[in-house]
Amino acid sequence: MNGSTPTPARTTRQRTEVTALLQEVNDFLTAQQLHGLLRERGAKVGLTTVYRTLQRMVETGEVDATRTPDGEQLFRQCSRSRHHHHLVCRMCGRTVEIEGPAMERWTEKVADQHGYTDIAHTLEIFGTCSACAR
Amino acid sequence: MNGSTPTPARTTRQRTEVTALLQEVNDFLTAQQLHGLLRERGAKVGLTTVYRTLQRMVETGEVDATRTPDGEQLFRQCSRSRHHHHLVCRMCGRTVEIEGPAMERWTEKVADQHGYTDIAHTLEIFGTCSACAR
DNA sequence: ATGAACACGATAATCGTTTTCATTTAGGAG
DNA sequence: CTCCTAAATGAAAACGATTATCGTGTTCAT
């Protein structure tokens, strides 16, 4: 085609195992937790590769990343590819994907009013889910 | 008096210098940037003390802390004590405090609809301010 | 089947932040 | 004012998550 960055993306055993795990797990986990789960199930994948694979998947939009209040990165494979946010149970980690078109427009409007460009935002909602509240 | 935690809080030269700087600067800066500024103005304060002082001020609510998308901590002394959010320049840290009553209500409504209680949320908007966009 | 580009992974390096611990200091008691 | 002790300081070391290195192993188009 051309000289731009075509992003290869090869199918390797390790990547297959990481993506397989992500499809089963439905919570936000750290790279190290995911690595631990892979080892538990006998998958021989290096921690470095887990990080690199997640990094790549975040860039391609296949995986969402957030951070704990401590600054640790959390990864999760979300069902919708569109931009969205999360409602997370602080007890069990159960996650609901949410969208807020009006809120999105509001952030852009506010940023624009103050002369800021190249806008990005982070929004996470934490609560206690009904099951954990009982 | 008793054995509870009365929170001492002594007045030291170092703490005075840190709080003085925070009152002059009203951008979100990292602990290291603040430490650098202190040294520039000739204040002899150790980096450790800067971290510890900021930590304490965050706990007492005197200072607000956020994180850059990279996970670095940012500190700032905010003018309003009421709940608010920030529009932060990713280049220089210039900050605008913003409120979004409608957005607040929206997060509560969404959380309630999904049966989540005891709601809390984080929202930060990052952009490039007009000066840095130059 | 081949080989060049890509991927793997053990290890070392980064880098922001915290801990350690010996020394200094604030500030109340006498 | 002097003493005393808990609190504070800070240089250096430890930490912990993430990233870079680089020699080896794999993928896959030809």
Automatic annotation (TrEMBL), chains A, B:
* Family annotation (InterPro entries): FUR, Fur_C, WH-like_DNA-bd_sf, WH_DNA-bd_sf
Task: Name its cellular compartments.
Answer: Cytoplasm
- Keyword Acetylation on this protein? no
UniProt keyword DNA-binding present: yes
Q: Which UniProt keywords apply?
A: Cytoplasm, DNA-binding, Metal-binding, Repressor, Transcription, Transcription regulation, Zinc
The record's subunit annotation is: Homodimer.
Family, per entry: Belongs to the Fur family.
What's the protein name? Transcriptional repressor
The protein's organism comes out as Asanoa siamensis
